[in-house]
Structures are given as structure tokens and as C-alpha cells.
Design goal:
Number of strands of chain A: 20
CATH superfamily of the largest domain in chain A: P-loop containing nucleotide triphosphate hydrolases
Number of strands of chain B: 5
Helix content of chain B: 25-40%
Oligomer: heterodimer
Order of helices and strands of chain A: EEEHEEEEEHEEHEEEEEHEEEEHHEH
Number of domains of chain B: 1
Strand order of the largest sheet of chain B: 2-3-4
CATH topology of chain B: Outer Surface Protein A, domain 3
Shape of chain A: globular
Structural class of chain A: alpha+beta
CATH topology of the largest domain in chain A: Rossmann fold
Radius of gyration of chain A: 20 Å
Strand content of chain A: 25-35%
Number of helices of chain A: 7
Amino acid sequence: MAGPVTLESAPFDAVPHGGYFHEYGVYGIRLRSEFPLALPPQTGQPLGVIDLRIGPEDFFQDAVRGCALEDRTVWHKLARLADGSSYMHWRDLGEFLVSADGRQITCRKFPDAAMESFQVYLLGQALAFALVKQGFEPLHATTLEVKGRAVAFLGDSGFGKSSLAACFMGAGHTLVTDDMLILNESGDGGDGYVAYPGPDRIKVFPGIARRFLGKRATGVPMNSGTGKLVIPIGGGGCCHPVPLARIYALCAPHEVPRKAAIRIEPLTPREAFISIVANTFNSALTGADRLQRQADAAIRLVRSVPVRKLFYPRVLSQLPAVQDAIVRDLGA
Amino acid sequence: MADVSIVSPVRISEDVLFQELQGEAVLLNLKTGVYFGLDSVGTRIWQLLGEHEVLSEVVGAMLREYDVTEECCASDVMSLVTRMADHGLVAVVDREPK
């Protein structure tokens, strides 16, 4: 058997040999990979299994030949193939093909892309497609462990989830996941959920990182379109599922003036439901079956976990006070 | 904008998922993937749309349950149903939904 294949060393026109040298665990999922990743080994019974393969350039060219590519953003394209698989392309980063059943992701990192940035999209957007195809409902949420319980923050990109997370981390709390949240009903006879740990890194702006993460504040740019850095936590992240205590939906930054007070208000079940579905990690797969499943999952979650709306001014110096308010709310 | 009148026969579209949440509701248009929220009054109007064939009957039922003038009730019902029709949640029977 040939030696380990790495994304950096493999010629990109090589045919994958089909051997999975590496096994990892993330989001409760076992990943069997042809190449090394910055992830821990899988422990315990996984929620699912996904295989990661390297594909040469012509593999992807053949796959999307004749397909219409949808421009999701100026630098992200998507195509739905006739066999049910999904193709994703990020300019200057890489491309991915997720099988129809979600059990395999074939990927190709572009030569000048940083490995850390590539893994962000592999273990985020691409993995989310696979997880949705397997029946999971990932949320776009940043989650911290506070006194043994998970606290999830929902919000659009730019709402300040990661900044708030960095503040919590600076105060000694542990990051469960930075971007994508996978929940599972705890199955202990109760009606709770557990949150599964994501990759051991956070994506945050340099100034935020320096203020709250200190010496850990070094990383590589996430992509060419943002100033955010991908910062490895270096073993300081969460490594086990954590019971979910509360979900906070962050208000939009423009909703709160700079001198306004911090407020936490309960949401009605309808408002909570809308917050949950509005913060799905994957809004591209919109078949009726998936939408029905997504709605059912959101209903069950809303009936089990309190969802509150967090209003706070986006002032950096106020983040510790926001953190204190959340910790007090958790204890109430 | 949908053409809705008080005598319009209206039916709920087949591609709509309805979920009640403690007196309020959410509607999901399974064709478009768009969600809509209904407060308690809107939820009751939706339920009545499923029980009656024309809007005048829906208004009649609302007048029996709520303290509101007929003019105001009719206006509110038609306004809501018009928006629902525009988003494909209901259809006026002699027109195809969007």
C-alpha cells in the first residue's frame, strides 16, 4: 500500500487510490479521509460516517460538464447534478462534489489556497451538504460550554457570534463549535439535546483575537474576501457532546444603538421557530422532503430548548458585560 | 396582486405546511421554501379558510368570535388573504396559484 496521501503532496491529477488512511471525529461524525486533517480521532458511537477523497481536476470537469452553475456569491458557485450529487466551487480555494447520499465528499484544493482555509470550507459548507443529505439539520450557530452546558448563538454572518465567542473564551469558557452546530436528541428519556464539538478553531477578526485570545491570536486569512483569521485553538476546544441549555438569537447590529442597554427577551414559539429555520447552515437544498424534515426538527427543538433574543450594542468594550448578562440569564 | 373579493372562493394550496405553535402559526410554502408567520388572529383566519369555501363565510365566523366591526373584519381578512395568494399559500379557485 502506498504511503499517506496529503493534500499538499499529492499531484492533483493523480487518481485516488481509494485507501482511507485517516479516521477522525467531528460534529459526532466519523470522517474517513484519504488525507490528514486537523481533527481528533473519533470516540464513541458516531452519528454517521462520511468518506473524504481527493479528486483530480478532470474528475470535477467531467462531473459538471453540461450542468448549469449557479452563482451563489461572486466567488461561490453551486450545481445540482442529475444523479442528486452537489458540486461546490469557491474561487481561489477549491471544489467539492458531495454524493447524492451524502456519504462521500470528493475534493480538490486549489494550489495557492491555504490548507486551514480549505478545511474551513470542507468541514463547513461541503460537510453540511453531506449531513443534510444524510438527514441531519445543521444550524449556523456558534456554541460555547458554560459550566457544563452548551449555549448556542444564532445570527447571520457579521452579527458578532464569533466575537462574542472569543470573549467567552477569554473568560475561560470552552468553544464547542465556531460555525456549524449539530444537535442530537439526548435519548436519555428526557427531552433534551446535546451539542457536538466542531473543529478546534475559531474564525475571528485580528483585533478581536488580540483582545480576547492573547497569545493564541495567530492564524491565516479565511479567504480573500474577509479579514477574518482562522485561528487554531490548539487543544483548548471541547472534545465531548454537551447538553444544550439555551439558544440565543442575536439581534442585527443595526437594531441596537451604541449606548443602548443589554436586553435578553424570550421569544414566542413562532418567533423561535423562525429564528431556528432562518439560521440553517444549508439553505441550498430545498426539496419538499428536506423542508418538511427541517420544519419538524425545528418544531421539536423549539418545544424542548428555550430560545431568547439577545439585544446588545456592538461595542467591543461591552462584550464582557454581554457575557456576564448571558451567564446570569443561564443561572436564572 | 391577487384579485380577491368578499365572495371569492378560496382554497388552501396543497404545497403548504401548517404548524401551530401555542396559538400562533408558521406556514411553509414547500414549492418556494419561504416561511410565513401568523399571529393568533391570522392563525384563526387560516383555520377558517380550511373550513369555509368563500371569504364571506370566514368573515361571518370571525364576527362571531371577535369584537370587531364587519367593515374592519372584512378589510383585514381580504388584506391577509390577498397577501397569502400573492405568495402562493392560497388560491382563488378560478385562478392558478403562483
